[in-house]
Amino acid sequence: MTGTVALVACGGVLFAAGTALLLARPLTRILLGAVLIGNGVNILVLATSGPDGNAALLYPGSARKTMADPLPQVFILTAIVITLALTAFLATMAYRSWQHSGNDDVPDDIEDIRVVRRATYAEERERLRAAYRKRRLEYRALARDEEEREARELTAYERLGTARHRYRELRRRARADARAFRARQARAEESAEEIVGEDDPWQTILGADR
To answer: What are phi and psi of 170, to 5 degrees?
Structure first.
């Protein structure tokens, strides 16, 4: 039981380390990650293959109950061959990449870059559209306030014009009344002067008796 737990823990550690290396950009680390994951998977398969036993060989006098399960061992051997082929392939790719560009970093795929840029452009477009809608609403509110202010000013100007017209009409009437009053006063003064300049008939008649 202790050996099985140790194998499972070792396989888990190798699998985790290989996954972390696979997430890196250099092909060398990807190669090491693939090797660690392959070995970790082999150890996990071996740990879960059942109890230990004799070699799975059929010969006279062998007992099948004491034999180990040969199927996991076949899987492990096949996985070792596949891991070796993958290791050779990744090593060749890393070497060719180093010869071509001087490093073994995995470049970004053009289609991936287009997808990322398309998503970035879509987010930027939505942000600009939201900002445009906000500015348009602000402009409409400002234009509405400006129209209301102009309407209020126009109403005030109309009221001022009406009051000015009324004031001019009243001033015109006051001036006409003043001219008429001055004219009547002048005629009254002229009439008074004419009356004073004429001879009083009673004074003529009674002048001797006085």
So the answer is: -65, -40
Average pLDDT over residues 90-100: 87
Q: Is 33 exposed, middle or buried (0-12, 13-18, 19+ CB in 10 A)?
A: buried
Structure tokens at 69: 């399960």
Say how many residues make up the chain. Answer: 210
> What pLDDT is stored for residue 1 in this prediction?
47
10 Å CB burial of residue 42 (0-12, 13-18, 19+) is buried
Both tokens assigned to 167: 């004031």
- Classify residue 60 by its DSSP letter: T
Q: Tokens 């001087």, residue?
A: 102
Residue that is written with structure tokens 């492990």 in the block: 76
pTM of the model as a whole:
0.48
Direct distance between the N- and C-terminal alpha carbons of the chain, in angstroms, rounded to an integer: 171
Query: Rounded to the nearest 5°, which phi and psi values hold at 154?
Result: -65, -40
| pLDDT at residue 34 greater than cutoff 70 | yes
Residue 6 one-letter amino acid: A
CA dihedral 150, 156, 162, 163 (to 10 degrees): -160
Does 202 have pLDDT greater than 60?
Answer: no
Q: CA of 90: how far to CAs of 35, 60, 87, 121, 202, in Å? A: 10, 46, 5, 35, 155
d(CA 43, CA 5): 11
Cα-trace Rg, the chain: 58
